[in-house]
Design goal:
Helix content: 25-40%
Strand order of the largest sheet: 2-3-4-1-5-6
Shape: globular
Radius of gyration: 16 Å
Number of strands: 6
GO molecular function, one term: mismatched DNA binding
Domain DNA mismatch repair proteins mutS family: 98-114
Number of helices: 4
Pfam families: MutS_V
CATH superfamily of the domain at 19-69 and 77-144: P-loop containing nucleotide triphosphate hydrolases
Distance between the termini: 29 Å
Order of helices and strands: EHEHEHEHEE
InterPro entries: DNA_mismatch_repair_MutS_C, MutS, P-loop_NTPase
GO biological process, one term: mismatch repair
Structural class: alpha/beta
Largest sheet: 6 strands, mixed
Amino acid sequence: VGEKYIANDVFLDSETQQIIIITGPNMAGKSALLRQTALITLLAQMGSFVPAESARIGMVDKIFTRVGASDNISVGESTFMVEMNEAANILNNLSSRSLVLFDELGRGTSTYDGISIAWAIVEHIHEHPKAKARTLFATHYHELNEMEKSFKRIKNYNVSVKEIDNKVIFLRKLERG
């Protein structure tokens, strides 16, 4: 409350920048950026006003989200199981017009396994033979930044912070790198 919302530009396409990997510390604004993108896309699809200086958004047939981390004990599903079921649903239903948002995939397992699963999912989306779904992938796994070197449509971004006098200042601005 009381903070001004920081606007961010997002560009995704199936030819040059299909997947954006977003890193940054907790509370930096990664999740807010994903939500902003989903909401603006949804508003545009239904012909509503879009809160932006300008927007050019193609047709989107599905918006997939994998956010949060919780179990579903009532049906015997661990956090990891919930994450994997949701990720499998996304991967099995992608189209070339899908918008895919992953937020901190792999929280429900060990770091090593989480990195491996996240890498495999990003690679699968990039290499999908029919669907080059536009994807935002927010993560703490900086190892995923290595993917940009091997996959031409993956780009690295971070949500910027600044340190002044041993205090972290959240700038909440999406920057390349």
